[in-house]
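Researcher: Next entry in the queue.
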Amino acid sequence: MTRIGFVGLGTMGAPMCHRLIQAGHQVHAFDADLDKTAAASIAGGYAAQSAADCARAAELFFTSLPRPDHVQAVMVDAGALAALPAGAVWVDLTTNQIDLLRRLAGRAPAGVAVVDSPVTGAVDGARNGRLTLFAGGDPAAVDRVRPILSVLGTVICCGPLGTGNVVKLVTNQLWFIAAAALGEGLALGMRHGVDLTVLWSAIRQSVADSFVAAHDAPSIFAGHYDPSFTLDLCLKDLRLIQDLQHGLDADLPLTDAARSAFTLAAERYGAQAAELHVAKRIEDDAGLSFRLPGDWTPPWEQTDPLPRPQHLPET
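Model: Structure for this entry, 315 residues:
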């Protein structure tokens, strides 16, 4: 049993925190939303009174927050960084700004190690322990936290501090491109007379298959577009990716096009609209409907992370 502090009990943080509790660890949890803190207590954790109290009690201290400025607020303004005891490891699960992460690591108390380990795999991955975690930091610190991170999913060691976020942002970069492209492909096929079920089945059984086609398309078919992640958060990550682009002497036209596509969707539907409104904009502009009858289980309720077409065309 490890004493764990966990701050940030949102869409991803809450199920990760609960899995650590279920694994038998002593988890002290805190969120600015006191109802979420109470829910962690009901699940078997300990309700901390503040982020600093949460850090003070921890051998391993986790933050899972939406934005870099939230990490700054928790670690500096709320005093969590200064409260960490010698020997503790702070693991930041946030998709974060690398320079901020490294600055905060430089301000950590003596004897405190820092690991960045942003995650991918959506809400269902968090619930089911099927996340992929990209860990960066001193090898000894990463080795120390790896058994705990493995409760949440597969751990990939990426290199020094900050490289976990580089890898996470690259995976998001490719997801954004694929998500923006999916709506274009669906619209093009449907406009020229292909049934949507046939089209999706063909995509899933061809070189066009992808995590986006498998995992995310059902959220488009159901019409909720996956509200577990907002366009605002997509644009936040795209800005972080743009920061990385500044260090590369090459044009990235597909990445720039994806940023434009998500910006257009946010301008039309609002920043808090679900992430796959990037496909709905194309759907609406083309005067098509991407609704597909079926029992489309929302991603956050799925046990099988990659649903298959319910009825495959005969070959």
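Model: Confidence is low (pLDDT under 50) at residues 308-315.
Researcher: Noted, moving on.
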